[in-house]
Amino acid sequence: MIHNPKTINVNNSSITIEISDITLSTSDCIVNAANRTLLGGGGVDGAIHRAAGPDLLAECKELNGCNTGEAKITKGYNLKARYVIHTVGPIYLYSENPEQDLRNCYLNCLDLAKNNDIHSIDFPAISCGAYGYPIEEASSIAYDAITQWIKNNEDYHLKITCSCFNEEIYEAYQKYFNYDINHFRKH
Ligand code: AR6
Fold first, then answer.
1. Is 9 exposed, middle or buried (0-12, 13-18, 19+ CB in 10 A)?
2. b/e per residue 31-53 (b: at least 16 CB within 10 A)
3. How far is the CA of 138 from the centre of ligand 1 (A)?
4. Residues 129-183: pLDDT tens digits?
5. Which of 30, 46, 78, 96 shows the smallest number of beta carbons within 10 Å?
6. Residue 74: phi, psi to the nearest 5?
């Protein structure tokens, strides 16, 4: 079930926030908040691997892991989404520059989506679970990175969804979202 979807249009693209389970997404692509091994784990990573089936892990084994802030793409197998983009968020307390790392996750996922001709993508709240990123800060960085990317890629059409797993995450996103609705109305 999808709850409380809200969408704003920016250039040729759109950003939606909603409360949803990303494994049920019907977008072309979903983003996995993975770890550097890309060999699965708990949280959204575990849920995506369970829903996609064992072929996803088999493909991930060929990828030789992924650095923090970077992204790699696989097929989606049993998911409705055709692709999964795996990115590795910063561990909040260990990263020297968690803000830059988190921003890079969003920007690299969006670049990779465009390079693969993907036109709809769902993000979870990267690093906001096991990796301990405070949701208020993380949602502001996510929002800023996504809008920056859209402005730098104004000819490309991409439907971007921030899939919030619960009310608390949704409320944090909504704060920036409401600000942006006003901001874009004024300009
Ligand atoms: N749909 C949408 N969001 C979800 C779902 C779901 N099905 N399940 C969880 N979330 P986390 P991280 C949210 O811990 O902090 C893994 O073990 C969750 O509420 O999954 O980047 C990896 O293997 C939270 O807001 O990812 C790594 O070792 C957000 O997804 C490590 O955890 C991210 O929480 C990565 O930690």
1. exposed
2. bbbbbeebebbebbbebbbebbe
3. 13
4. 999 999 999 999 999 999 999 999 999 999 999 999 999 999 999 988 766 555 5
5. 96
6. -135, 175
Mean of pLDDT values over 107-123: 98
Given a cut of 60, whether residue 43 has pLDDT beyond it is yes
Tell me the average pLDDT across 77-93. 98
Report the separation in Å between the CA atom of 116 and the middle of ligand 1, taken as the mean of its atom positions. Answer: 24
- CA of 163 from ligand 1 middle (Å) equals 11
Closest residue CA from atom 12 of ligand 1: 127
Does the beta carbon of 19 lie inside 6 Å of ligand 1?
Answer: no
Q: How many Å lie between the centroid of ligand 1 and the Cα of residue 185?
A: 33
pTM above 0.85, yes or no: yes
| Alpha carbon separation from 118 to 54, 98, 175 (Å, rounded) | 24, 27, 28
Average pLDDT over residues 35-50: 98
Nearest CA to ligand 1 atom 8: 44
pLDDT of residue 187: 45
